[in-house]
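Q: Predict the bound structure with phenylalanine.
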Amino acid sequence: MSGHNVWTHKGTFLLAAVGSAVGLGNLWRFPYLTGENGGGAFILIYALTIFAVGIPIFIAETMLGRTSRQSPIMGMRHLTKTHKTSRAWESIGWLGAAAAFLILSFYSVIAGWALHYTWLMLTGSLVGADATTISAGFDALLASPGLMTLYHTLFIAFSALIVGLGIHKGIESGLRIMMPALFAILIVVLIYGVINGDVGAAANFLFTFNIADLSLEGWLQAMGQSFFTLSLGMGAIMAYGAYMSSEASLTRTAIAVAFVDTAIAMVAGLAIFSLVFGAGLETDQGPGLMFVTLPLAFADMPFGALVGGVFFILVLGAAISSSISLIEPVAAFLVERFDMTRPQAVTIMVVAAWAMGLLTVVSFNVWAEGTIFHALFERSAFEFIELLTNIFMPLGGLMIALFAGWALTQSEVMKELGTNITWFKTWRLLVRFVGPAAVSFVFLRTIPQVEGYVVPTLGALLIVGVFALSQRLRKSA
Ligand code: PHE
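A: Predicted complex:
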């Protein structure tokens, strides 16, 4: 489409995609979910999904973005027309927009916690503090809806400013420094953990694969996390793919992103669990895991206030480069479809996500129990939103895989992939069958376990829907 920018550098997409992928998902969510789900078994499912399903779908998603060169919703609309498939495939874009909105709502609240800790570190408030003091400090933050709302507001407003002014495409140079710096400082924390913590126990916990340790819902969480961490299945990668230069290699980019993303998660996990076991903390302490263990290390480390301050600034940077990729697909859609200006589009998306984020804020205090979410789904609003994204992202990915695998023609795919026929055939096999089968398998496996009737019904409906859609696709393929 005319007017749609293309990034001039071949490497820009890679940087932007790494920026989107690496974020709170690696540093905060991966360790805490691993801890709650018994360690190795969770990692096994997570890693298998990344490599067998995530990478091929990543390629598919960038491919859809790059061939359509539009925002996900408009891009899918365009592709359903040019490929004479059912318009229902446009739901890939809509589902993605819903997922982006939900994720942004809680992402910003958690990033707000990092803002709080940046402040605590830089002011030296935690120097020398012990585990009890640090846990109590974290609990105090959670108990304060006012403070959490303040940080949430600051973080989302700042992200909005970047996307609204259209400068997010220019933050490459920042990322080029920040990403290696983040990795380096994680290594510092890991070394500290090896010396002062218990890296043996951590490695044992993370890499002993006993699949029986994993609850049924743990399967869904592990799969959801692998989509979450790669920013997959909700349009972010498609939106970025739309700006990707035609020369860049889809396959190499996807592998590089998955590799960097996994490496960061693993180093973060090892470092955090070394500290957890060293200090005798609980592995399953939930969303607070990173925010309690890391400050404990910084409290005690030489120059800890400074190292900790820099660390949390880098966490914030990683979170911002992810949150802008959550705003982009929806904002780009509003601009293309309703002729809004960028600032208008961003404001609408962000104000709505901000309001939704208040649900996450209160899930940790005034609405920590006894709400309608607890009555219906046996979980807090925040946990329910997380559950939805664990479903939406793999489902979106499944549909992306089916569409790219069945609707795009061989010559189109070959043109985008730019590789030999063997890899084309392998990739197509993966997105036509392997990915969809794996995702359906986890959905079906999980359904009886997740309480209530809403999730099973949703799940069954969705699977039937996807099947029906793929039948219609096949006719025209
Ligand atoms: N991948 C990001 C992270 O790990 C989160 C994200 C999900 C960003 C989906 C964009 C889209 O923090």
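A: Residues 49 and 164 are 34 Å apart (CA to CA).
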